[in-house]
Specification:
70% helix, mainly alpha, Growth Hormone, Chain: A
Length: 472
């Protein structure tokens, strides 16, 4: 629902070049008579960290960029389902299926566009990819604000999907400018931008409903275009030219090429499965929440926006105050298991909560799920080098989009069926129950596979807690 954009002026190029240094070479010559066989450094060692001040500046740049983008997306969350509902004549059941169709289409297009953006960022740098994405997003919000029918609104979502696959580039940006042991904290900072954006964005979108259903789209367009200008003049590049691929890698830019790329790193296969399953479960929110809140609790768009704002507050608290500390204290493995377990419990509360108050009681529990994402990405980033971070993250985003092709059909379809006349029981919470089951499966996979490989665990700077074994 959000994305990243990096852009900057040429004056920042010198600073950016120092963000990621090249591999250290030994000054010693080989003994006479022996061949010099250059050995590549461990994958994560090539990501030598920049000076703390420069690293903080780079993270602030990317934080602000993500924040503005999330504000734009968050503003239309409480609005889009109701706009769809208006286009279909006020039929909530019909609207639920159309919202699911929108989500499926969005994810299907991102499945193809995400690996391409990842490969482009490895070849040309992170900044231009994010810049074009942000500009395209602003234009798309204008298009949707003017859409006269459901069909044109659908076209707008297609354009949005093409231009919004840059979160993978943001993850690669974080990997570029942080040390392995600091990446979970960096990813947590991005999570905090998401949370803060979803505090303000839905609230603003809900209040703008006073001016009509189209007003939040205009507001989001203004934010996205402002983000383009911010990136153009402020956001620095994180990948210097010497670290980029020599040519555009079309084989890995194809959707299945990205999946094949992930297959080249056996150490992350289990973690990739966790990312896929957990994000599949997460699609329950965009697929059903606004209509679920209306059907079960009678919450209108403004009430749903306030709940999303509470979710954002919790997300900021978790990502800013807890992620770094818990990952450092527990290690990535235990942090992942703790986060997923909290997600399971939270979804179970949502599915059976008979009142709005009971639903709200589950928010702090499910909010701790946010610990799992940064810890998982930190483990994955440690296993691959800087020259493929963009493609790996693009492949992951494509995989998440693949989940999004099927998840909305499952969640919106089950929700629509269990509120319809043919349902054996009226159970609007069925989608959250299915999401809880999926997260439980992700927990089992993480318990088996969430640990760094021996090579990654031996890297300098990796805390001991990160290398715990399956028994931890």
């Amino acid at each position: 629902m959000t994305r990243l954009k990096h852009n900057w002026c040429t004056a920042a190029t010198g600073l950016a070049a120092s963000f990621v240094e090249g591999p250290v070479q030994s000054a010693r010559s080989p003994p006479p008579g022996r061949l010099r066989v250059p050995l590549p450094p461990p994958r994560s060692v090539v990501n030598l960290t920049p000076a703390p001040g420069r690293r903080r500046a780079a993270l602030v740049f990317i934080f602000v960029t993500v924040l503005i983008d999330v504000l734009a997306f968050g503003s239309i969350i409480p609005v889009l389902p109701h706009l769809v509902e208006r286009f279909v004549g006020g039929d909530k059941l019909h609207a639920a299926y159309w919202v699911g169709a929108f989500s499926v289409t969005f994810a299907a297009i991102q499945f193809f566009s995400s690996p391409i953006q990842g490969a482009l960022s490895d070849r040309f740098g992170r900044r231009p990819v994010i810049l074009l994405s942000c500009l395209g997003l602003g234009i798309d919000f204008v298009f949707m604000a003017l859409a006269p029918s459901l069909a044109w609104l659908f076209v707008g979502r297609v354009i949005s999907a093409i231009t919004s696959a840059s979160f993978s580039t943001a993850n690669a940006y974080i990997a570029d400018v942080t040390a392995p042991e600091e990446r979970a904290k960096g990813y947590g900072m991005i999570g905090a931008a998401f949370g803060l954006g979803f505090i303000v964005g839905p609230l603003v979108g809900g209040e703008l409903l006073h001016f009509g259903l189209r007003a939040p789209f205009w507001f989001s367009a203004a934010l996205a275009l402002t983000n383009f200008l911010y990136g153009l003049f402020v956001l620095p590049e994180s990948l210097p030219s010497e670290k980029r691929t020599a040519s555009f890698d079309w084989s890995h830019a194809k959707p299945m090429g990205g999946i094949k790329l992930l297959g080249e790193y056996p150490a992350i296969w289990g973690l990739v499965a966790v990312v896929f399953i957990a994000n599949f479960a997460h699609y329950v929110y965009p697929s059903t929440f606004v209509l679920f809140a209306d059907v079960r609790y009678g919450w209108d768009g403004r009430a749903a926006a306030r709940v999303l704002a509470v979710v954002g507050v919790i997300s900021v608290i978790v990502n800013v105050m807890l992620v770094g500390r818990l990952v450092k204290a527990l290690g990535e493995r235990r942090a992942i298991l703790l986060g997923l377990a909290c997600g399971v419990i939270g979804f179970l509360v949502y599915s059976f909560a008979g009142t709005g108050g009971m639903f709200l009681a589950g928010l702090p529990i499910s909010g701790l799920w946010a610990i799992a994402g940064p810890a998982t990405m930190a483990l994955i980033s440690r296993e691959v080098g800087p020259e493929v971070q963009g493609r790996v993250n693009g492949a992951l985003t494509g995989l998440v989009s693949l989940a999004g092709i099927f998840a909305p059909g499952l969640f919106a379809g089950s929700f629509g069926f269990f509120i319809g006349p043919k349902s054996p029981a009226h159970f609007p919470g069925i989608a959250f129950l299915l999401a809880a089951i999926l997260l439980a499966c992700a927990w089992l996979v993480a318990w088996r596979y969430a640990r760094p490989s021996p090579a990654a665990a031996a890297l300098p700077g990796v805390p001991a807690a990160a290398s715990e074994t399956a028994g931890g």
